[in-house]
Design goal:
The longest helix is centred in the first third of the chain and has 24 residues. It is globular, with a radius of gyration of 16 Å. The chain is mainly alpha-helical. A hairpin with a 2-residue loop joins strand 3 and strand 4. It is built from 9 helices and 6 strands; from the N terminus they run αααββααααββααββ. Helix 3 packs across helix 7 and helix 4 runs antiparallel to helix 5.
Length: 192
Amino acid sequence: MVYALIDKYYHDSPELHALLLRHSEQVRDRALRIIDAHPEMKIDREFVAQAAMLHDIGIIYCDAPKIFCHGDHKYIEHGWLGAELLRKEGLPLHARVAERHTGSGITAEQVLRDELPIPVQDYCPETIEEKLICYADKFYSKSHLDEELSWQKVRTSIWRYGHDAVLRFDAMHEMFESTTITDNNNNTIHGK
């Protein structure tokens, strides 16, 4: 279902299609490793795998030529645009992930203060699955697909959104990295 949906919207953009798949698979794989490290959290593995693959589906509508996006919207809009697409496809829970993964979440206050071109509402992750995908996403950039960011680099980049954004990221880090997890090569990623 996930790959068919991505193919439906990205079939005319092979470079963007490949980029979206690569980034989404990185986010999915990190999220699944965290789930494996935390069976006590009882996180919905199948949902996370699907939603992680679809969280950035809205980038097709945005103008970001460096990552092969040639749409009409600002990049900050990709979350809510993807959410609208996913709701239209009958996936309201997946849509919530798409609209709540940017930064460590965006508050209605931020939308107003920064005059963001998105509907005024809170876009902060609420469920554990939303938080997990939002968190995992921060470690991978679509403009540097071969690089996994360190926790310190992610935290530094979050600072541009303000102190509250850093606190939200820190809370997610505490929640998901309270035990050591490893990457596909058995290298330690993080641990307390």
